[in-house]
Amino acid sequence: MQSLFLSNDEKDKKEYIKIIEQTAEAVCDAFDSSSAYSGPEPEELRKDIHLDSILPDNGLGWERVLELTKQKILPNMLRTPSTDYMPHLHGPAVLESLASELIISAYNQSMDSWDQAPVATEIEVEVIRHLCALYNLGQQADGVFTSGGSQSNQTAIILARDWYCSEILKFDVKKYGLPEQFKKLRMYTSEISHFSMEKSAHILGLGYESVVKIPVDSKKRMDTTVLKKRIAQDIAEGNLPFLVVGTVGTTDFGSIDPLFEIAAVCKEHNIWFHADAAYGSGVILSDAYKNRVAGLELCDSITVDFHKMFLLPISCSAVLVKNAADFDALTIHADYLNREEDEEDGYINLVDKSLQTTRRFDALKVWMSFLCRGKDGWSEIITKSMENASYLYTLLKKNQRFSVITEPEITSVVFRFVSGTEKDDDINRAVRRTLLHKHGIVVGQTVADGNVCLKFTLLNPLMTHKKLEQLISVIQAEGEKLI
Predict the structure, then answer these.
(1) Dihedral pair phi/psi, residue 344, rounded to 5°
(2) What is the mean pLDDT of each run of 10 residues along the chain (483 residues)?
(3) Which of 7, 174, 368, 388 is the most buried (most CB within 10 A)?
(4) What is the per-residue DSSP string for 222-242?
(5) From residue 213, how far is each of 24, 97, 111 by CA, in Å?
(6) Residue of 254, 407, 465 lying closest to 473 (CA atoms)
(7) 300 neighbors 322 (Cβ within 8 angstroms)
(8) Which of 294, 317, 286, 288 is nearest to 304 (CA)?
(9) What is the DSSP letter of 245?
(10) pTM of the complete model
């Protein structure tokens, strides 16, 4: 039988090294262009990857499978490290984090109990401790790694709901389920916040109607004047405001809600304050711009994503809370997993504060990359991307062929090719697809103020001003062909 696993057997070690080296070589060979995409449209791509069966009667063996991977998959993978890739809030992964992924997959630890991941558990606890200090959450703070921003937000909403029901309504949700007045619970977030707010409300049995969407101002920030009025109105109507979510980096615009003002409202009404900083949490590492996220320390919980501005591989996120005791809402003991007797003897079982049971050792990526780059390295990376966004905004403002929606606060720039005709929506849609399939340039598309727009999400610090100028020239040329 061919080798199954990496072990202490020399034959297995040699096979592992061979497979990893061959894979690394194949990946490097597939980076044969500076473009982000090779170009196939959906139907062509489906035809290219088709196989009669992916479970043959007789296995093909490693060499043949590697060849098929090289033929069908690697040439068509998006090359996220390319400066032609900028559609969404994920981008390239720094090299040392690729090494951490190799370690994570080889050892295959699960983060639910200490006996499944001894050193991994202790490293996650250590990383969380440093993250709580980074965001100045105080000595009682804690956190846990999650699959991404949606799960971090959902966790925070659960903790906020249970805290409110326990502390304000004096009702034990964990034991009895939702209280009779659950239909009166209200959470507030901006009208352009992440869709995980509604999805979480649905999953938790509160429904979309429990999510009160607050309008944004011209800078795409939550209008706190309206927030105050809506909370007062709900209280007068007998509803139960339990949570306000401030967005620190909206998905499209990168706008940052006024954290100090929201914190004051939450304090006045005894409401949980959560910051969805999945995008903007990285700004704290920029010496030049960290003041833009001042106020995060006032939050009861924070979502932090490391597969966005921190440039780590998907998936890697965490939810941090100011009061570690709030995680009790998620704790339940099982004799086969997180025995109370072990915990009394100092064994930490992270499943006690996680929605997931089986979970990857994602904290290693943060540990290695933070140590490798240091404060100075990360400040340079994040500052460069934010400065690129500022430069692009200035560039577009000078060009009459473009309109820009709002000045960027982080690294997202939403803009629109303008022809002066009624075809602008269609032109912008067509330009995006032309860029993707003809030029291998991948940009985002969204709707702002009712108009179809293009979006650059500038997370790659290798982007240059010259390259931005070239990209805008290509967009302008393709747009003008369609007038």
Answers:
(1) -65, -25
(2) 88 96 98 95 95 94 96 97 96 96 96 93 98 98 96 96 95 92 96 93 94 96 98 98 98 97 98 98 98 98 98 97 95 69 82 92 98 98 98 98 97 96 96 97 96 98 98 98 94
(3) 388
(4) B-HHHHHHHHHHHHHTT-EEE
(5) 47, 37, 36
(6) 465
(7) yes
(8) 317
(9) E
(10) 0.95
CA 256 from chain centre, in angstroms, equals 16
Which residue in this structure is represented by tokens 């032309």? 434
Tokens of 398: 């000078």
Sheet holding 142-146, edge to edge: 142-146, 317-321, 301-305, 272-277, 240-247, 185-190, 211-214
d(CA 307, CA 185) in angstroms, rounded, equals 32
Nearest in space to 155 (alpha carbons), one of 271, 325, 281, 326: 326
- Structure token pair of residue 105: 């997959």
pLDDT score, position 336: 60
Q: CA 148, 151, 153, 155: dihedral to nearest 10 degrees?
A: -140
320's enclosing H/E stretch is strand 317-321
pLDDT at 3: 86
Q: Which residue in the block uniquely carries the two structure tokens 């499978």?
A: 65
pLDDT of residue 343: 74
Asked if the peptide bond before residue 315 counts as cis, ω within 30 degrees of 0, the response is yes
At 102, list the tokens: 């190799």
- The DSSP code for 215 is P
CA–CA dist 133, 267 (Å, integer): 22
Give the span between the Cα atoms of 389 and 411, in whole angstroms: 5
Confidence (pLDDT) at 396: 98
User: Could you please report the per-residue DSSP string of 397-414?
Assistant: HT-TTEEESS--SSSEEE
What's the full length of the chain, in residues? 483
Residue 430 and residue 30: Cα distance in Å, rounded?
Answer: 28
